[in-house]
Amino acid sequence: MSSVIGIVFIAVGLAFDLFGCIGLVRLPDVYNRLQAATKCVTLGTCSILFGTFLVVGFTSPGIKSLLCIIFLVLTSPVSAHAIARSAHRSGIKLWDGSVVDRYAEDKEGEI
Q1: Share of the chain above pLDDT 70, in %
Q2: What does pTM read for this prediction?
Q3: For burial by CB atoms within 10 Å, which of 1, 5, 30, 43 has the most?
Q4: What is the DSSP string of 84-106?
């Protein structure tokens, strides 16, 4: 039963990874693409790793997949924030349809 649930998690993870890759191609600017890469691919990869854990159980690969999930959840938001902040500081403009620029508001508050 757990292997069937694991395969479902893997299939859902593959779907999220596919949507994240489509978002990387289709979205207009670096900030929107970063959103797609961070959210969809993180959730998809964690789902694939958790499905792998459910299929193989508490073996060496299963424990490694759980450790990878923890590492991915901790590092992905930090790296996405660092990339977005460095892109903004280097002068990469937002898409014309963007409504809010929180980094510019923070920069105005520093002056």
Answers
A1: 87
A2: 0.81
A3: 43
A4: HHHHHHTTPPPPTT----HHHHH
Structure tokens at 14: 């593959």
Q: Where are the alpha helices (DSSP H) in 27-59?
A: 30-56
What ranges do the domains of the chain cover? 2-110
Q: Pull the structure tokens for residue 62.
A: 């299963």
Buried b (16+ CB within 10 A) or exposed e, 90-103: eeeebeeeeeeeee
**C-alpha angle 52/58/63, rounded to 5°?**
70
The number of C-alpha atoms within 13 Å of 3 and in the hemisphere containing its C-beta is 2
d(CA 71, CA 89): 27
Q: Is the dihedral of CA 73, 21, 50, 64 positive or negative?
A: negative
